[in-house]
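Try it yourself: sequence plus iron/sulfur cluster, in.
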Amino acid sequence: MLRPMTVAASNRRKKPASRAAAVPGRCAAPRNGAHLAEALLAWYDRHRRSLPWRARPGERPDPYRVWLSEIMLQQTTVAAVVPYYARFLARFPDLRRLAAAPLEDVLRLWAGLGYYARARNLHACAEAVVARHAGVFPDTVEALRALPGIGPYTAAAVAAIAFDRPAMPVDGNIERVVARLHAVAEELPRGKAVVACHAQALMPAQRPGDFAQAMMDLGATICTPRAPACGSCPCRDSCAAFALGTPDGFPRKAAKTTGALRRGAAFVVLRRDGRVLLRERPPTGLLGGMSEVPTTAWSADFDASAALAQAPRYRGARWRRLSGTVTHTFTHFPLELTVYATRLPADAAALPDARFVPLRDLAREALPNVMRKVIAHAVAGSAGAQGGGA
Ligand code: SF4
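Structure, out:
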């Protein structure tokens, strides 16, 4: 899973928590819940963020835009999503156009946004809504959950925002706000169910969609991970963490474990006419269906001395190991790639299941960021290389 940008954590939509599981006796509507909802909605009416996918006051939300934005925002920042959302809407202005498009076009437009399984599911979901619901999004959590790529969080978000259903979508922002409002003692992720249950209990009967978006906005702009602006918070009177004087001590989190470093080799075949050899990754799994240069497997026990045995077989190719490595951090593991490059004549044929693509056209390729880094490294490292390249 790609993590394409380093930005303020408060703006990144973290992996959504599941919707509230019943935790009898451990969560309930707060005594002053009505006052909290009223204060938060009044704040939202004055300070709501203007987002390209958000309906303006008095407008009816478009379920297609709400769904598209919610899928894009998973694990990604608003700032990163805005240009992708604009390009998607320009190319696929409605659900039917998206459903009718080739998957490759969707993956191309998605390239760089990361978490590519979402793009495949996006396309599958559009097809399913057309096939099962005549192109109209269903308006209940249960029916939305039955669609490809729509989990508990997205179902709640679309149901609340697009259809004003009282379903609370618990993303990272809302999780943080609720954990603070209730000073939840349990560490996350163990305490997620309790937080989600508290969150659902906060949901008012009036304007549930606005309330969900108000909670999101509060978490993104006021109740930030570090140094929350409690002085400007409409929920301060109801906040247990504020009363304790330790707002940023919540949510409590268990120590993180990160995956072990994986290593591998990438092979960049450059042709003298400015083309590079690409192939497609398998349709499922990490970066499924995306383009890549040939690589070895990525593993913790990668044997660098045996890497060249797996290089694409071109008679007479002289491989050069480039200095330095390309590193990339996926959600579950960091990756370090050693890059080998070779230059071939302009008439070299592509290997089976691969193709030569002009370097100037790479922007239109469904290339994940890690592969863009690899190719950039090889092009820079090969500049000035003479003769047979290697
Ligand atoms: S008072 Fe402070 S900690 Fe509590 S919800 Fe508001 S910003 Fe967050």
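One thing you can check immediately is this: Residues 102 and 123 are 9 Å apart (CA to CA).
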